[in-house]
Amino acid sequence: MQIFDLSGKVAIVTGSSRGIGYSIAENLARANAKVIISSRKADACDAAVKKITSFGANAYAIPANIGKRQELEDLVIETKSQFKKIDILVCNAASNPYYGPMSELPDEAFNKILQNNVVSNHWLANLVLPEMAERRDGTIIVVSSIGGLKGSDKLGAYAISKAADMQLARNLAIEWGSKNVRVNCIAPGLVKTDFAKALWENKEIREHYESLTPLKRLGDPDDIGGIAVFLASRAGHFITGQTIVADGGVTIAG
Length: 254
Description:
Layout: E1 10-14, H1 19-30, E2 34-38, H2 42-53, E3 58-61, H3 69-83, E4 88-91, H4 107-135, E5 138-143, H5 156-176, E6 181-188, H6 197-200, H7 203-212, H8 222-232, E7 243-246
Parallel strand pairs: 1-2, 1-4, 2-3, 4-5, 5-6, 6-7
Helix pairs in contact: 1-8, 3-4, 4-5
């Protein structure tokens, strides 16, 4: 048995039409999983599916807005209708509508961040966990951030949500571990995605971050995708409740 092979597995990846989510979906597909591409816009989902199926892998589009519980329920129902089960759930989609100090954070923005980055992950997890537990096999991966490991004067609400995701994973790992369901987080550093464009396109911020990072570069989405394959595969079967940091070493550099 190949310990990274995902043949026969079905995976849902939210926010997977681009960036880190797309890389995770593509890498899971390259490891032979059937992958559900899901984000708000149907055309973006279709474009991602076309890219993945172009090299002979299996991908299917089911658009959903993570902020709407009914759409998440429909995502799970449709996946089960087509593929009978869900082996892997990757909660990648997230929002950050505010950049600035907590003292000026509007309640509306704070609520949206918590809803999309924490509550929606909680919803999705609980939608798939019972069936995973019944089969005594399943894994959930939440894409968090190193922002959840330290304080911030500009991304405070986002950092709070990402710290909460790490605790969500620990809680669920305790609750469902006896059913052979594993729950983990990946905490990327600054990765060159559209989501983080405001940071890495700023020359001063980018060069400052690179200077602090032992690897002296920013991350690429594919630096994260392979970690999800590891956690979802036989190779990661004894790992649960953990947060794997992928940041080029910046959090150990002081």
